[in-house]
Amino acid sequence: MNLMACRFAIIFFCITLSTVWGADWTQFRGPNRDNISSETGLLKSWPAGGPKVLWEIPVAQGYAGVAVKNGLVYINDYDEQKKEHAVRCLSLADGREVWRWSYKVNIRPNHGITRTVPAVGDTLVFSLDPKCRLHALNAQTGELVWQKNLVEEYKTTIPQWYAGQNPLLEGDRVLVATGGDALVIALDQATGKEVWKSPNPDSDLMSHASLMPATIGGVKQYLYLTMNKVVGVAAADGQLLWNSPFTARMAAAPSPLYVGDGKVFVTSGYEAGSVMYQVKKSAAGFSADTLFTLTSSEFNSEVHTPILYKNHLFAVGSKKRGQFTCLDLNGKVVWQSPVASGNPDSSRTFELGGFMLADGMFYILDGVSGILRLVEANTTEYKELASAQILEGHDVWGPLALSDGKLIIRDMGRMVCLQVGK
């Protein structure tokens, strides 16, 4: 290699290195839909004041989390003065707004306004607004590429607390469970053209749960929870493969979770409890049997889907005073965060707070106080590593996101970016 070529190679390497980011968080629950970040080298302890706050911005009342890709942060927001739904693109480094796309739509606050997380593909970002309009925007410029009104095109019924479902990206497709004329639709990301739609024989309505991918019996499929059943939908053509009864109460928010070996865990709030199903494929097709059930007093999660880690399930239980709970795959409670009667300072409850897993640690938000706690991920005990008062509290239920050592969290009016990497 001559000197000029060598210099060019060094310059190219340095430019490439300077634009490399940590693991992207491209959609709800991350790129693998498991709520686990692949980043390592994160801080195992914090100074007294907590992690460094890199930036913060005001946001509309709600629970909408963010997606992050290539150093850009995407959030669904709402301008209450202008009455506009907005998709905002921010710099991960400093929170500066890169672009904003918005349009007029009158949305009355109903226990918050925003609930959905954008999904970012190779070139487009997909936003499902509170009234079930799906938009595809250029991820770099915010220019509208295509849009679909699910109410008009698929007879979707807007959920009681507005849309809370998060679009799923798989390959070149974007998927949404619409209800109405179809249970689930698969669209081409680039054009919005329908690839397939599932039948909806029971006229199920859109729930707040999101689609989750799984491969069971060698068949790729999407799991979905309606208000009265859990369903498996074929990824190839949208055909209904199997379903089993599950009665949600008030709202179906957590998504079905595939835990391996044909087992699917489903949980919901408001006395619904939890069920583990065994899904099998035979010559006659798929079937689902109940392996065990848990009452709501034993374990349930009202808002968040549990995390599967080392063959255990971790989540905030809504009927155990918000205790962070570790379950084995037989439904046995292994441990819960402590509750000390008469000593609130030593109690660790989280109400309906959000959580995620990274580098062998759980980041867990107290849904009432806004305290962020760092907890070691293990299957034997609750071991807290650090805590800090970051948010102001009051319904801190939004999902967390992590990229390039930066953790993004929010409450009902403020979004904060923390430096949790070294």
Distance between the termini: 37 Å
Q: Say how many strands there are.
A: 33
- The share of residues in extended strands comes to 35-45%
Overall, the morphology is globular
- The number of helical elements comes to 2
- Strand line-up across the major sheet: 1-27-28-29-30
Overall structural class, as computed from helix and strand content, comes to mainly beta
Q: Give Rg in angstroms.
A: 21 Å
Question: Could you give a short account of the major beta sheet?
Answer: 5 strands, mixed
Low-pLDDT residue spans? 3-20
- Mean pLDDT level: 93
Helix fraction by DSSP (H/I, runs of at least 4): under 10%
What does this structure look like?
- It is a single chain.
- The protein is mainly beta and about 425 residues long.
- About 5% of the residues lie in helices and about 40% in strands.
- The chain contains two helices and 33 strands.
- The chain has helices at about 5-20, 150-155; strands at about 35, 50-60, 65-70, 70-80, 85-90, 95-105, 120, 125-130, 135-140, 145-150, 170, 175, 185-190, 195, 210-215, 220-225, 230-235, 240-245, 255-260, 265-270, 275-280, 285-295, 305-310, 310-315, 325-330, 335, 355-360, 360-365, 370-375, 385-390, 400-405, 405-410, 415-420.
- The relative contact order is 0.14.
- The model is unreliable at about 5-20 (pLDDT under 50).
Topology record:
Layout lengths: L2 H16 L17 E2 L14 E7 L7 E4 L2 E8 L4 E8 L5 E8 L14 E2 L3 E5 L4 E6 L5 E6 H5 L13 E3 L2 E4 L8 E4 L5 E4 L14 E5 L2 E7 L3 E6 L5 E6 L11 E4 L2 E6 L4 E10 L2 E10 L12 E3 L2 E5 L7 E5 L4 E4 L18 E4 L2 E5 L5 E6 L7 E6 L11 E3 L2 E5 L3 E6 L3
Parallel strand pairs: 1-27
Antiparallel strand pairs: 2-33, 3-4, 4-5, 5-6, 7-8, 8-9, 9-10, 11-12, 12-13, 13-14, 15-16, 16-17, 17-18, 19-20, 20-21, 21-22, 23-24, 24-25, 25-26, 27-28, 28-29, 29-30, 31-32, 32-33
